[in-house]
């Protein structure tokens, strides 16, 4: 991405967003860049003054559960065959390993900061879990995303997912939009389209079978949603795999 003539200029934008997001949250932040790769930022603060940021990544994680950076008016990178092949060739990293990296770097930052009472990044290794000090809301959000990912072949409704995390449907709808940046239905469609791409690349299942498997009653509608996502038909996508 950083070497691409068109997309290279967007990478620094993602870096800056991640850095300032960590500072505003007063703790390390893991985000997804516009290409769906995960990275994190740790602010460096000395005597209550921001000295800089450490930005690490970007990696392809097992569970896509982090907030995505939405850049306006950017052409879909999936249309570039070379970038698409490079993305799928990346090694998949377990989310817990990424969280552990956040914890380790946070500990190192604390160790080399003279005034640990005033820095914004706390020693996160005091927790028995590698959750980089997740708030109650963040834990619930991640539980929702993992539940969706594990049930893409099942019927996923606002009511059923809300019930899974013990929230009312109305509250859950607002909660999801606020925490994830997009509404529930759009996220489910995005994840199903992502899975559809995997099935088209890695299996010989028919398009009709994939559509039914992902809970689309009509193959024609599935194809329209797929085209809107990848800017090509499922048939063409499979030929380019």
Description:
It comes from Salmonella enterica subsp. arizonae. With 241 residues, the chain is α+β, with helices and mostly antiparallel strands. The chain has two domains: 1-133, no CATH class; 135-241, Arc Repressor Mutant, subunit A (Orthogonal Bundle), CATH 1.10.10. The protein is 49% helix and 12% strand. The protein has ten helices and four strands. A four-stranded mixed sheet has the order 1-2-3-4. Strand 1 (29-32) and strand 2 form a beta hairpin. The longest helix is centred in the last third of the chain and has 19 residues, at 184-202.
Which percent range describes the beta-strand content? Answer: 5-15%
Segments where pLDDT lies below 50 for 5+ residues?
114-131
> What is the H/E string?
HEEEHEHHHHHHHH
Radius of gyration: 20 Å
Q: Average pLDDT, to the nearest integer?
A: 83
Secondary structure tally, helices: 10
| Major sheet characteristics | 4 strands, mixed
Choose one word for the global shape. globular
Task: Order the strands across the largest sheet as they lie in space.
Answer: 1-2-3-4
Report the end-to-end length measured between terminal Cα atoms: 19 Å
Which class do the helix and strand fractions yield? alpha+beta
Number of self-contained structural domains: 2
Count of distinct strands = 4
Helix content range: 40-55%
Domain HTH araC/xylS-type: 142-240
Protein name: Pdu/cob regulatory protein PocR
Keywords: DNA-binding, Transcription, Transcription regulation
Pfam families: HTH_18, PocR
């Amino acid at each position: 991405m950083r070497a691409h003539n068109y997309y290279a200029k967007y990478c620094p934008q993602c870096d800056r967003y991640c850095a300032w997001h960590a500072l505003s949250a007063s703790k390390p932040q893991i985000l997804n860049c516009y290409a769906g790769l995960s990275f994190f930022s740790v602010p460096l603060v000395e005597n209550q003054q921001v000295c800089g940021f450490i930005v690490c990544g970007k990696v392809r994680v097992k569970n896509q559960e982090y907030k995505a950076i939405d850049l306006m008016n950017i052409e879909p990178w999936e249309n570039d065959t070379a970038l698409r092949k490079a993305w799928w060739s990346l090694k998949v990293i377990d989310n817990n390993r990424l969280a552990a990296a956040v914890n380790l770097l946070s500990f190192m930052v604390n160790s080399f900061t003279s005034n640990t009472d005033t820095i914004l990044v706390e020693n996160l290794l005091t927790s028995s879990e590698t959750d980089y000090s997740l708030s109650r809301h963040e834990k619930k959000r991640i539980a929702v995303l993992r539940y969706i990912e594990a049930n893409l072949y099942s019927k996923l409704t606002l009511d059923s997912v809300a019930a899974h995390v013990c929230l009312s449907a109305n509250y859950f709808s607002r909660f999801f939009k606020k925490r994830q940046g997009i509404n529930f239905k759009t996220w489910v469609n995005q994840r199903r389209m992502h899975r559809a791409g995997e099935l088209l690349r890695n299996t010989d299942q028919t398009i009709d079978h994939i559509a039914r498997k992902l809970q689309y009653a009509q193959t024609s509608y599935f194809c329209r949603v797929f085209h809107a996502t990848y800017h090509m038909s499922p048939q063409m996508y499979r030929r380019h795999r």
